[in-house]
């Protein structure tokens, strides 16, 4: 069983996770479009430069498929948003050659990418939705009506990580910061949780790990502690059954005055996956099992609670010239 | 020779650097005020929680001194700005017990902390200085006179990292973002370099490594490549002789239209130190040598050029409850 992690970026730890699994006896390859991606210098069995996926879609898919054939790759794990979109459209091409591309159907990705579509999905399925305004006038009317007050929070309609997100403290500041394709929401200040939910090939949840976030950094979870939380558990199960994603889903949930608000859904291995993995729930192994044709049986609350996971500075080097 | 790194934060790599040195035969201890600091879970010989340095100065110094006695610490290496200020005022107390606290004199720190004092120092010593405005009216006058145009860059007078820094594209945005104790400068877009200059105990430079920055993240150098650069080399030497800091100094320099502008001076081990160390210049060993009473002889251009250093995601865990 050979695995290829594409656009690995800084996540060299995924290579270590796969190799640490005793039963694993294949090779782990890594690829990126940037030769200075630190993951290319991790403990892999081969690194490859591929074209930039979005700018050169056809060439990217052709070169990726060719690489998979050449290295007898069984599973491709993309970990960044732009690439999962693209590969979702082409996964059948890989499936024909028994190569599993770990990505959900395109409809699932569309629901997750746009915060407006995500809100529609949540509303339709009976979940609480954060009040959302798509323009300054709409916000002003609500503000005049007393239904929202500053500070508010602005974010892009389609966004990943925390880029261009931020608290805004006045109408003046809002006018200066607000751009097209942004949303305005109340600033939520409750505890934030990350949930990793793994669905089997029929779109049914089989694993679930809840982590309370203690600190963020560059839009990624920096420190988190695994917890059990009944309300979040049942919400996440219900959501995963409705969404019917494939494999990993990384949910962000804020608990505000007793209500649970889903604020982000990423149908891929998220930046907070290390905590899930190290708490004893190995999504990577499940994917290999599924490639072998067996869907895992559901098993919940099977993780170590109270595990604090902290991201650290690792360092990789390479010689660029002599 | 025992070493203590205080408020280690995410820099567990410093422990590895010291221990990787063949001639090192002591212990490396780590301390932080936050029990979730990942560096506390590095490959150390003992971790200690200390009070928050700034909020509880007297208690901090007393507990640190007591810890040093108890663990027979020879060298204390503080790595964050608030702490170097504080320890600079108390270093003699430690020196009396033959404990070397790696920090410059208070006057040096004052010059480095305030961008206005730094500019005075640079001007007085004949270096180029980035045009700097301390208020919106002053900026408006210069803008009307045609000496500066948007976008401009705002930053705190006293600041570390990139917090509250940013490009500002209009007077409207400036009015919304500008606060007391901020500076306005032209937005420089030239290549940025990090320079580590090590001074001996008489304040004379003995080592110097230049790195071209390729990428930043959360205000720290994320990717850099070591280079030789004659102009920067002679500027940094001249600056270090004028500043007379002790031990490490981390300089940030932008080359804009052929002129060199010093934009930041940090008289401590900076976030970009790993590149210097891995290129073959070991500041940590020099400090141990100096504690032993021998100042190192000057040696320049003794590093590996073309070494690309990338920061990666490392992961540490601990159990917080059973």
From TrEMBL, chains A, B:
Domain annotation ATP-grasp: ranges: 119-292
Lineage: Bacteria, Bacillati, Bacillota, Bacilli, Bacillales
GO MF annotation, one: D-alanine-D-alanine ligase activity
Official protein name in the record: Carbamoyl-phosphate synthase large subunit
InterPro entries per UniProt: ATP-grasp, ATP-grasp_PylC-type, ATP_grasp_subdomain_1, PylC_N
Keywords, alphabetical: ATP-binding, Nucleotide-binding
Species for this entry: Evansella caseinilytica
């Amino acid at each position: 069983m050979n695995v290829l992690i594409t656009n690995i970026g800084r996540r060299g730890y995924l290579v270590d996770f796969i190799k640490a699994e005793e039963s694993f006896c294949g090779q782990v390859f890594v690829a990126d479009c940037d030769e200075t991606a630190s993951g290319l210098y991790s403990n892999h069995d081969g690194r490859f430069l591929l074209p930039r996926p979005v700018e050169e879609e056809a060439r990217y898919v052709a070169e990726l498929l060719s690489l998979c054939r050449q290295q007898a790759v069984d599973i491709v794990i993309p970990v960044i948003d732009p690439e999962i979109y693209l590969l979702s459209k082409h996964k059948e091409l890989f499936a024909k050659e028994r190569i599993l591309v770990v990505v959900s159907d395109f409809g699932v990705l569309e629901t997750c990418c746009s915060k407006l579509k995500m809100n529609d999905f949540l509303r339709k399925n009976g979940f609480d939705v954060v009040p959302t305004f798509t323009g300054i006038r709409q916000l002003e009317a609500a503000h005049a009506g007393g239904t929202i007050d500053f500070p508010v929070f602005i974010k892009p309609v389609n966004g990943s990580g925390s880029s261009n997100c931020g608290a805004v403290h006045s109408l003046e500041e809002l006018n200066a910061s607000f751009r097209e394709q942004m949303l305005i929401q109340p600033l939520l200040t409750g505890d934030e949780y990350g949930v990793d939910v793994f669905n089997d090939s029929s779109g049914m949840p089989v694993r679930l790990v809840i982590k309370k976030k203690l600190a963020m950094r560059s839009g990624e979870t920096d420190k988190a502690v695994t917890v059990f939380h009944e309300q979040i558990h049942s919400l996440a199960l219900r959501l995963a059954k409705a969404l019917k994603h494939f494999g990993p889903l990384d949910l962000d949930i804020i608990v505000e005055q007793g209500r649970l608000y889903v604020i982000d859904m990423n149908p891929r291995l998220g930046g907070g996956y290390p905590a899930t993995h190290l708490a004893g729930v190995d999504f990577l192994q499940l994917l290999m099992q599924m490639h072998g044709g067996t869907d895992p049986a559901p098993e919940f609350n099977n993780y170590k609670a109270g595990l604090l996971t902290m991201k650290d500075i690792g360092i990789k080097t390479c010689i660029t010239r002599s």
